[in-house]
UniProtKB/TrEMBL annotation:
Residues 398-551 form the Tail sheath protein subtilisin-like domain. It comes from Accumulibacter regalis. Belongs to the myoviridae tail sheath protein family. This is Phage tail sheath protein. Coiled coil: none annotated. Gene3D superfamilies: 3.30.1370.220, 3.40.50.11780, 3.40.50.11790. InterPro entries: Phage_sheath_subtilisin, Tail_sheath_C. Residues 556-650 form the Tail sheath protein C-terminal domain. It holds the Pfam family Phage_sheath_1.
C-alpha cells in the first residue's frame, strides 16, 4: 500500500478478481521398462515414438530375447501407447545389476592402455559401436590448456605454427589479461636446397638450430633415390654421415658442415653433389629471443620463452591458457561409428581424447593415469566389447526393486497414467499400487494400468487386486505372424487409449488399435471378467473395450474409470485455482474471489459435461480467520456413461 505523504491520487490494485485456475494435464502417460540403450532411472519426456526408438533402441524379438530369457519391454510398450493416441509420454528405463556398458581400451604401439572408452549408457547397443584409429591427416587442436605452475612448456608437441594459436596470461594479482604475439623456432621439412651465387648449396632459412634428432641432409640422384645422408633419420639402406656446425672444421669423408650463421653447406671434397644430383634438407630453424609482448615457442618440444619480466608467476596466482595446433604427424584420428552417427576426434594422446569425448553422444572416456599421455597406435578397426573388452548387457531381468526405483523417479512429476512395461498384476501389482497410494498422498494422483496375470481366461479371473486407481487388462495380443504378447502389452495400448479421451469419456465399447487378441472370451466368460473387474478387449465389429472399469469392484465408488479421472481432474483444478490465494487476506472480499475462481473452474467442467452439477460454499468463522483457515465445501456430481440400453418391446 502506498504511503500518502505528498498530495496526489493513490491507487491500490486488488487483483484477486483476475485469478483463474491453470491448465490441468489429463493424458500424461509414464511408461517404465527395460531397453537396449538410453539412460537408466532418468525420466525423459519424449517428443514422439521416433525419439523413443532413437534413444532406447529397437525392441528385441519377443520369442528370442537378446539375453535368452527376458524380452525388452519399454519400446514395445511405448509403440502400443503411441499407436492408441498417447501424445505426452514420459519414459523411464530400468535395468538389473547385470546391466553393463560396452567398452574399448585404446592402446599405444607397445600395448599399454592409454584410455578406456565406455558406451554412454548400458546395453547391447554399445557392442555395435565401431572404433577406428588412423594416422591423422589434419592437425589436432588443443583448446584451453591451462597452467598454474612452471610455465616452461606446452603440454603437446610438435606445435604447428598457425594464426589460430593463442596464449594469454591472467595475472592473479591485478586480474589483467595479457595476450601475446607468438613467434616460433620451427622445423623446415623436405626443403629442396638451392645453390647460392657462389655455387654452394645454402639452406633457405638462416640461423640453423643444432638439434641432432631433427637435422637431416640427403643427396639424391637423378631418379630421386638417396645417394648419401647426413644426420637424423637416414633413408632405409643408407648409412648416415655426420653434420658439423664448427666453422673451423673441414668436412672429412661422410661429413657435412652447416654454417650456423649463413646456413651454407660444405661437403667433403670427394662427396660434393655431382651434376644431376640434388640435395634435400630437414632442419630446425632458430629464432631471436622474444621481444616485449612476444612468446617464443619451440615447436619440436613445446618449450615457451617470455621476454624478460613478462613470464607468469605461480606465486602471484597467474594462469596461462593456451590453444594451439599439434602437427598431424604427431596425432591420430579416432573415429566412432554407430548406425548413422559418426564422431571423429583428431588427438595426440589419450588425455586429449578424454577431454574431447566429454561432449560425445556415444561414449565416455577415462585416461589412464600412467600412460594417458601416449600416442594411440594407428591402423586399428574394431568393435566395442570384443576381445578382453567388456561387452554391453541390457539388464533385461529387472525385478521389483528396479521397477520400484523407476516409479520413484516419476513420483514427483505430473503424470496421469502409469504403465509397467511387460509386467502383470501378479508379479508387480503390489509395487504399482504402492506407488499409486504414495503419490496420492503428495497430491500427484494417477491411475495405473497393468496386464492381467497369465495367458488364459482362467488366469485373468484369478487376480487378487482390488484398487480404484488400478486397471487390470486382458487378454494378450496376437500378431499377424501368429506370435503372441502377454496382457501387459495390451495394458500399454489401453493406457494410450485412456490418454486420448477426455476425462468424462468412458472406454466402454471404444475401438482399440491392436493387430489381434490372443484369447477370445465367450459371452459367459465376458460376464465373469466384468465381475472380476478385468478390463477386457473383445472382438465385436473390430476390437473394442468390453467395459471401462477399474479393479475396485462393481458397486464401488470408483469402479468406472471416468469417475476416477473426473475426481482427479477436479482435485488438480481446485488446487490450481486455490493455491494463488495462499498468503492473501482472509476476509469476505478475498473469499468471494476464491469462490468465483472455483465457480469458474467447476462451471467449465459442467459445460464440458464432466459434471452434471455441483454445489460450492466458501466460508470462514472469526476463529478460522485468525487461524488462517478457509472452508471450501464442494459437492460435485460426476457424469456417468451409458453401459447398457434396456429395451422393452411390446408386440401387437
Amino acid at each position: 500500500m502506498s504511503e500518502m505523504i505528498v498530495p496526489g491520487t493513490y491507487i491500490d490494485v486488488r487483483a484477486e478478481g483476475l485469478i483463474s485456475a491453470g491448465g490441468v494435464a489429463t493424458g500424461v502417460v509414464a511408461v517404465v521398462g527395460t531397453a537396449r540403450s538410453g539412460p537408466v532411472g532418468t525420466p525423459i519426456t519424449l517428443s514422439g515414438f521416433s525419439q523413443a526408438r532413437e534413444l532406447f533402441g529397437l525392441p528385441d524379438k519377443y520369442s528370442i530375447p537378446e539375453d535368452g530369457s527376458n524380452p525388452l519391454t519399454l519400446v514395445r510398450s511405448l509403440q502400443l501407447a503411441y499407436a492408441n493416441g498417447a501424445s505426452t509420454v514420459v519414459a523411464v528405463r530400468v535395468a538389473s545389476p547385470r546391466a553393463a556398458s560396452a567398452s574399448y581400451a585404446l592402446k599405444d604401439p607397445a600395448g599399454n592402455t592409454l584410455a578406456v572408452l565406455t558406451a554412454a549408457t548400458p546395453g547391447t547397443w554399445g557392442n555395435d559401436i565401431q572404433i577406428s584409429v588412423s594416422q591423422a591427416r589434419t592437425p589436432a587442436r588443443i583448446v584451453g590448456e591451462k597452467q598454474t605452475a612452471s610455465f616452461a612448456q606446452l603440454g603437446y608437441h610438435s606445435v604447428l605454427p598457425n594464426q589460430q594459436n593463442r596464449i594469454q596470461v591472467l595475472r592473479g594479482d591485478t586480474r589483467r589479461v595479457d595476450n601475446f604475439n607468438l613467434v616460433y623456432r620451427f622445423v623446415a621439412r623436405d626443403e629442396a636446397v638451392a645453390k647460392n651465387g657462389g655455387g654452394s648449396y645454402q639452406l633457405a632459412n638462416p640461423k640453423v638450430s643444432t638439434v641432432a634428432s631433427i637435422n637431416s641432409i640427403v643427396v639424391l640422384d637423378g631418379n630421386g633415390s638417396p645417394v648419401r645422408a647426413y644426420g637424423a633419420n637416414p633413408p632405409s639402406g643408407v648409412t648416415a654421415g655426420t653434420i658439423l656446425y664448427d666453422l673451423a672444421a673441414t668436412p672429412a669423408l661422410n661429413e657435412i658442415r652447416i654454417n650456423p650463421n649463413t646456413s651454407e653447406l660444405a661437403f667433403a671434397a670427394t662427396q660434393a653433389p655431382a651434376a644431376g644430383q640434388s640435395v634435400v634438407a630437414t632442419y630446425a630453424v632458430d629464432h631471436a629471443d622474444p621481444a616485449p609482448g612476444e612468446i617464443l615457442i619451440t615447436v619440436w618440444n613445446g618449450d615457451i620463452d617470455f621476454h624478460a619480466g613478462e613470464a607468469p608467476r605461480a606465486v602471484a596466482g597467474d594462469v596461462l591458457t593456451a590453444s594451439y595446433l599439434v602437427e598431424a604427424a604427431d596425432s591420430v584420428e579416432v573415429s566412432l561409428t554407430h548406425s548413422q552417427l559418426k564422431e571423429s576426434y583428431v588427438v595426440p594422446d589419450g588425455r586429449s581424447l578424454t577431454a574431447l569425448a566429454a561432449q560425445s553422444k556415444l561414449v565416455r572416456a577415462v585416461a589412464d593415469a600412467g600412460h594417458g599421455s601416449g600416442k594411440p597406435a594407428p591402423d586399428v578397426a574394431a568393435y566395442f566389447g570384443t576381445g578382453s573388452n567388456v561387452g554391453g548387457a541390457n539388464g533385461a531381468d529387472a525385478g521389483e526393486d528396479e521397477y520400484a526405483g523407476g516409479l520413484e523417479a516419476i513420483s514427483n512429476r505430473v503424470v496421469n497414467l502409469v504403465v509397467l512395461g511387460g509386467q502383470d498384476a501378479r508379479g508387480m501389482g503390489s509395487v504399482l499400487v504402492g506407488h499409486l497410494k504414495s503419490t496420492e498422498e503428495t497430491d500427484l494422483e494417477r491411475i495405473g494400468v497393468i496386464g492381467a496375470p497369465g495367458v488364459e481366461i482362467a488366469d485373468f479371473l484369478g487376480h487378487s487386486v482390488a484398487e480404484g486407481r488400478l486397471v487390470i487388462v486382458g487378454p494378450g495380443i496376437r500378431n499377424p505372424d501368429g506370435s503372441t504378447l502377454p496382457p501387459a502389452y495390451t495394458a500399454a495400448a489401453v493406457a494410450g487409449l485412456i490418454a486420448a479421451q477426455s476425462v468424462q469419456t468412458s472406454l466402454t465399447n471404444k475401438a482399440i488399435n491392436l493387430p489381434g487378441i490372443a484369447v477370445e472370451a465367450n459371452r459367459g466368460q465376458q460376464a465373469q471378467l466384468i465381475e472380476r473387474n478385468v478390463l477386457t478387449i473383445v472382438s465385436r465389429q473390430g476390437l473394442r473395450v468390453l467395459k471401462g472399469i477399474t479393479s475396485e469392484g462393481v458397486g464401488q465408488p470408483f469402479s468406472a474409470i471416468p469417475t476416477r479421472r473426473i475426481v482427479d481432474y477436479a482435485k488438480y483444478g481446485v488446487r490450481s485455482a486455490a493455491n494463488p490465494y495462499i498468503g492473501r487476506l482472509n476476509n469476505s472480499r478475498v473469499r468471494a474471489a476464491l469462490k468465483a475462481t472455483l465457480d469458474a473452474f467447476l462451471t467449465g467442467m459442467v459445460e464440458d459435461e464432466a459434471l452434471t452439477g455441483y454445489m460450492l460454499d466458501v466460508t470462514a468463522t472469526r476463529a478460522q480467520e485468525i487461524a488462517g483457515q478457509v472452508n471450501v465445501v464442494m459437492t460435485i456430481q460426476p457424469t456417468f456413461s451409458i453401459d447398457f440400453i434396456r429395451v422393452v418391446m411390446t408386440l401387437q
